[in-house]
Amino acid sequence: MTEAVVFDVGRVLFQWQLRALFEKLVEDPADLDHLLAEVVTEQWHFETDAGRPLTDMLPERKALFPDHAPLIDAYAARFNETIPGPVPGSIEIVRELHRREMPLYAITNFGAEFWDAFRPTQSVFDLFRDIVVSGKERLVKPDAAIFALAAERFGHAPEAMLFIDDNRANIDAARSYGWQVHHFTDAPTLRIDLERRGLLS
């Protein structure tokens, strides 16, 4: 039996791509590819997810890439522009589950400062009873500790919760810790699974 549904945020509920911001700022495609591959990379960005403050990250990066300092500053100042909109169909699923009085939660790898700027822009998060944010907890998926913290905070046994994430490593980890899981690819496929589980009709 499923007592609660737990969503990832990035690439499950909302699109996320660094390119969405920087294609506005860098005209040459080769320069853009270089920037995203070497300077403002997803791997570097993920340090914020683990709780590293921007006040440490930005000066260090600009010292390494001084010619790109304005773009590194733009990454911090305009981060919400890396989130171009919802994943098609996902927010509707959240609202339907809420109307059915299904308890909703989230576990997201998200920098604390970026979360504080993004969260107020999206009223859908008001439907969630609790959201565990990696940057605030200084714990990241797929580490066991963040799943243990979430289970404690959410108040449901792992086996009673359905965890939805687009990242295979996170899904495999959650399954190994006893959670029900859905490896997200798109909202229509998720809807079919939720209907099969009797959570939507």
Automatic annotation (TrEMBL):
It comes from the Bacteria. Coiled coil: none annotated. The keyword Hydrolase applies. Keywords: Hydrolase. The keyword Lipoprotein does not apply. GO terms for molecular function: hydrolase activity. PANTHER family: ALPHA-D-GLUCOSE 1-PHOSPHATE PHOSPHATASE, FLAVIN MONONUCLEOTIDE HYDROLASE 1, CHLOROPLATIC. This is HAD-IA family hydrolase. It comes from Qipengyuania benthica.
